Amino acid sequence: MKTKVLSLVTIFLLGTSMVFAQAKTEKFEVKGNCGMCEDRIEKAAKSVDGVAGAEWDKETKMLTVNFDCANPVVKAVHKAVAAVGHDI
């Protein structure tokens, strides 16, 4: 019984570490000025398949995108943000 429980715990821990190891974050500069720009930029980035989250900082003009590294989407995010009218 103890062996089964220990085996299950080990498998669970290995599985969760593999899931978290695949998450990736990229940052890049996106030109914009206001809160409306922020909404438009974040919405465009989040519309790309594989993007888990996106946050644009108005002060630093940096977009932080979280995505699954098994599905590289950086170029697709660049295209989506550019399509809504913002320079990258």
Question: How many individual helices?
Answer: 3
SSE series: HEHEEH
CATH topology of the domain at 23-83: Alpha-Beta Plaits
Q: In what range is the share of β-strand residues? A: 15-25%
Largest sheet: 3 strands, antiparallel
The count of DSSP E runs of length 2 or more, i.e. the number of strands, is: 3
Low-confidence regions: none
Kindly, what is the distance between the CA atoms of the first and last residues, rounded to a whole number of angstroms? 57 Å
Oligomer state equals: single chain
Helix content: 40-55%
Which structural class should the secondary elements be placed in?
alpha+beta
Describe the structure.
The protein is α+β, with helices and mostly antiparallel strands and 88 residues long. The chain is built from three helices and three strands; from the N terminus they run αβαββα. It has helices at 2-21, 35-46, 74-83; strands at 23-29, 51-57, 62-68. Strands 1-3-2 form a three-stranded antiparallel β-sheet. Strand 2 (51-57) and strand 3 (62-68) form a beta hairpin. Helix 2 (35-46) packs across helix 3. It starts with a helix and ends in a 5-residue tail after the last helix.
Descriptive terms for the model:
3-stranded antiparallel β-sheet, 48% helix, Alpha-Beta Plaits, alpha+beta, elongated, single chain, 88 residues
